[in-house]
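Posting for a labmate who doesn't have an account.
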Amino acid sequence: MVFLNFINVTGFAVSQIFILGVIGFFVIRLKLITESGLNAISTLVINVILPLYIFTHLVEGFSVKQITYWWFYPVIALLLSTLGFIVGFIISKISQKPQLQREVISLVTFQNAGYLPLVLAGLILTGSQLRDMIVIIALSLIGFNLIIWSIGVIMLTHRKLDSFQWHQLFSAPVVASLVALVVVLLKFDTLIPNVIFKPLKILGDCTLPLAILVVGGNLASMKLKHVDVASLMYAVIAKVIILPSLALVLILNVNIPYLMKMLILIQACMPSAVSLSVITRHYNLKEQIVSQGIFFSHLLSLVTIPVFLSLFLTIVD
């Protein structure tokens, strides 16, 4: 019964993303939006809408007094990304496709860290547990956004560290994360009038549908005959099966709070980050498997997420 319940919960959440991706695919295939239009949407998401999403959700949901050891949750994102990088690196060597190494590693390293975890939390938990989980997910997003919009950009754009200018680490999403944290810690959040905050939040909440449309549009723009199926399969399996398996073993053998364990497993179960496709579009990269990896990891996660969460709830409870 528990398994069937989670199939319904996660299936509904992931299906929404799948449908948005299909819409984006046909919007480009039917030429309702041009390639330049898709580039413009990608630029808007990265530089305006996503930063507003990050800022408003952190300012609204974070309280230092509410969460003990709040500073550790961004670190969890760093540790999970490090584990994902190691797994991705090993998988990229197994696939023996050096030209795809960066894309394989990126697909395994970075997950859909915001929307799906929040949806799952809202359907799994209630009361104070739900309130606390929403906040710690937002806190973990600080670490995740800092990593994907700095190291993730470096990985996908093939920039070399010796020629990389460190101010480029501070993209708009990274700056938004840091500013939101400072605003809350200094208690400036109470000074922001609702007449300003609310429209910023409304615009920021457009992030998910627009980002998914970019993913679907990227898929429509690609020639699938050039895709390396083996490398794609390795990356997707590593992301939604191998990584959450390692995370489950880890949390069952460490003494940490229950919600922290749940956060680690939920994040480890997530499919590849939609933001990867937005990055490749924004920097005009000729990706080969990123959009397909996002698409198929979300599709397979319809099954893998409820399996791992059911195991967690059965064993830990």
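Reply:
Got it, the structure tokens are right above this. The CA atoms of residues 82 and 141 lie 15 Å apart.
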